Amino acid sequence: MAESQLPETVRVAVDAPQHSGLTAPLDYASEQALAPGSLVRVPLGRRELLGVVWPGEAAAPDVALRPVAAVFDALPPLGQDWCRLLEFAAGYYQRSVGELSSAVLPPQLRELSPDQLAARLRKLERKAAKSAAPTEPARPVLNGEQAEAVARIEAQRASAVPKPLLLFGVTGSGKTEVYLRAAEAALAAGRQVLVLVPEINLTPQLEARFTERFAALLPEPLAIVSLHSALTPAQRLQNWLAAHLGRARLVLGTRLAVFASLPDLGLIVVDEEHDPSYKQQDGARYSARDLAVWRAHDLKVPVVLGSATPSLESWQHAESGRYERLTMKLRAAGGDLPRVRLFDMKSLAATPGVTTALTAPLLGALRERLDRGEQSLVFLNRRGYAPVLHCGECQWKSDCPHCSAWRVFHKRDRTLRCHHCGFTERVPSACPNCGNHDIAPIGRGTERLEEQLAEALPGARVLRIDADSTRRKGELEAQLKAVHDGDVDILVGTQMITKGHDFQRIRFVAAVNPDGALFSSDFRAPERLFALLMQAGGRAGRGASGEHPAEMWVQTWHRDHALYQALARHDYVRFATDQLAERRSASLPPFSHLALLRAEARTAEAAQAFLAAAAELVQDAEVLVYPPVPHAVARVADVERMQMLVEAGQRARLQARLRAWMPALIALKKEHKAVLRWAVDVDPLAI
Length: 687
Prior knowledge:
Blueprint lengths: L7 E7 L11 E5 L8 E6 L2 E7 L16 E2 L8 H13 L4 H8 L9 H12 L18 H15 L6 E5 L5 H14 L3 E5 L6 H12 L9 E4 L5 H12 L5 E4 L11 E7 L16 H12 L3 E5 L4 H9 L3 E5 L10 E6 L15 H12 L3 E5 L8 E4 L16 E3 L4 E3 L6 E3 L12 E4 L3 H11 L5 E4 L9 H10 L5 E4 L12 E6 L13 H13 L13 E6 L5 H7 L3 H14 L7 E9 L2 H13 L6 E3 L3 E8 L2 E10 L2 H21 L3 E8 L5
Parallel strand pairs: 6-11, 6-12, 7-9, 7-10, 8-9, 10-11, 13-23, 14-21, 14-22, 20-21, 22-23
Antiparallel strand pairs: 1-2, 1-4, 3-4, 3-5, 15-19, 16-17, 17-18, 24-27, 24-28, 25-27, 26-27
Helix pairs in contact: 1-2, 4-5
């Protein structure tokens, strides 16, 4: 063969099984030179997989290489910056670039041939233009705080090395308007904008607002797209292609959208940056918030992290000067923050039969609001009718046979359902243990609360919004519309309704039974509870001031707890200062750095043996390895789960130890065949 006809050697990132130990890109032969970022199909074993040509020089082959099977040459290569983002994320979260790229690219790409993808691209080009030229919408006048925030974001955009910006604004302070103005400036400069939200149910709401504002500026089809898991595979591929080709100028999405291919990215916004939903909980356990900050730093573009209750990590970065803090203390509509009333449950007489959720004073307060035609929100972070069914004779409870958890009683469809493994059975007519027919629910979920409110307040229009009531497509949008239209008097729900929703008519919020998180073994539980209650309270009084002040009612047995006292004053700064002092004294994040090694097996002994053997491999005085312990829910779907905490004072030290540990763990798994799965979780959110 003439030298000019020798095949090229290319490195390809491909999703190889973890146990194979193939973590780096693999070498293949190619008949043509391929630019880094090109999509290809390559053989691996007996399969043919999607792969990405990876940057870097391939080593001279000492064996005959398998050839690239097909090249997606109709698609421009993924950018060098996208490859850098994947390289960083894979290294930091201890995964292979092939596994991560396979997970973050649209699933339909794996199924299409180059010809089929070329046909999709032609279809994308034929998208008809919008018929009517939209008019420019009226923009609200910014208050002083909003104008200052927009000016400082613009100043960072002009900076050679922009700092991340923490937009600390009370609920209802108009943070979304600041995002819109910052996005407008970036779009006018010809750049793309990425806006991340924590939950899918917030995406349509935000998309409608951005579309309305930018319809005149971005009239082309697919100029504004969303990326999230609720899209069909075809929609997700279409929107991803529009972003990658530069047709989509504004991309809104949940955590996965942080990996969108955006060749002209000029601004990143992370709304509700404190939200735990930004952390992926399986596979590559990445934090989209942290990757957004890294991506902005790499591209030297501004990133705006917005929240009324910032994560303590972000707050500490702002305190140390690593982030620039923008503060907005006033509500944009001029309304006051709701007055917080801490109702002391100990003040109630210990009367048999008195419910601990719907107390008489709370019902009285709801009735007053009802009589005035005002909307109320009752927040309980537990769905279902009741946590368990219970037999008074033999003390049987509705446990799950496959998990170390209770099955929840759902009255509407008369089922007992495990929220961990999904195991569902019809409610038994009698106790399965002793045959007693008198089995009763214990505790309370949103379904039961909805029923009791309807009974206690006849004529009130009560609506429940939670994961059970919004399962079918379109249900959530219809229910939220009913709230906005004033067709609901009392809204009952879980944390799903406390985040980001702009309910203009709600004047009263009640949180019932929130105390459980005060005494959790997880050191982050107080931070999550405070954020949740502040966000829930923030749904009240967002419209113009009414004759009667908006109010938040918290029913608690621990009225004097520092968390509730800070909440009553809307004093996030005091809460954050106290929590950071506690974290510093205990050497907890953000003053130390953690990773969890998780193992799953049919027996707890097998999982523990693997973790104990793994601990012996860590010989480092600066890295502390704690003994293995069961997961909070130790057994799910008949699989026992154990975990082991690894701690280091320096992030670089922890990363170096994890990098050295990974190959040894892959080898160790081959010795511990009883272990079904293992994974490393860097910067875990729950312990």
